[in-house]
Design brief:
It is a single chain. With 129 residues, this protein is of the alpha+beta class. It has 3 helices and 5 strands, in the order αβαβαβββ. The chain has one domain (7-127). 27% of the residues lie in helices and 16% in strands. The relative contact order is 0.20.
Length: 129
C-alpha cells in the first residue's frame, strides 16, 4: 500500500526532483514557470485517498513564452522518454483522455515504453480567462 501524500506535496516534489532536472538538462536557458492550477481537490489541499482515482498524481502545468511554443512537442517527447514510471510509488503514466468522461485520464501502470504524463504546456496568453 502506497503511503498517501497530499497532491500539492507530491506534485511539487515531482517537479523539483524529476521534471526540473530534465528541463535544465535539455532546455538550458528556457524561461518558464510551473505550478499546479485548475480544478481538483489537490489544488485546494482538500485531497485524500479517494481523490487518487482520476486526474490525480504527479503532474504540473508548464508555462512558456508564446515564442517558445514551437518547443512544446519536443519538451513533451523528452519527458515521455526520460520520466520514470513512478514517483514515490505513484504512477506517472496516464491513459488517453476518455471522450465519454469529459476527457478524464486515469493512472495506467507500465514498466516499459514511453510515458504519457499529466504535464500540460501552455502560454500565459493562451490561458487568459
Amino acid at each position: 500500500m502506497i503511503k498517501f501524500i497530499k497532491g500539492l506535496d507530491l506534485c511539487g516534489g515531482f517537479f523539483f526532483d524529476i521534471a526540473k532536472p530534465i528541463l535544465d538538462k535539455h532546455f538550458k536557458g528556457l524561461p518558464y514557470s510551473a505550478g499546479l492550477i485548475g480544478y481538483g481537490s489537490d489544488v485546494l489541499g482538500y485531497d485524500d485517498e479517494v481523490s487518487t482515482d482520476h486526474m490525480w498524481g504527479p503532474r504540473f502545468y508548464l508555462f512558456i513564452k508564446e515564442t517558445d511554443l514551437p518547443l512544446k512537442p519536443q519538451i513533451l517527447n523528452v519527458f515521455s522518454r526520460e520520466l520514470p514510471y513512478t514517483y514515490k510509488g505513484y504512477c506517472i503514466n496516464f491513459s488517453e483522455p476518455d471522450p465519454n468522461d469529459n476527457g478524464v485520464r486515469h493512472p495506467e501502470m507500465k514498466t516499459e515504453g514511453l510515458v504519457s504524463p499529466l504535464i500540460f504546456i501552455q502560454t500565459f496568453e493562451s490561458n487568459r480567462l
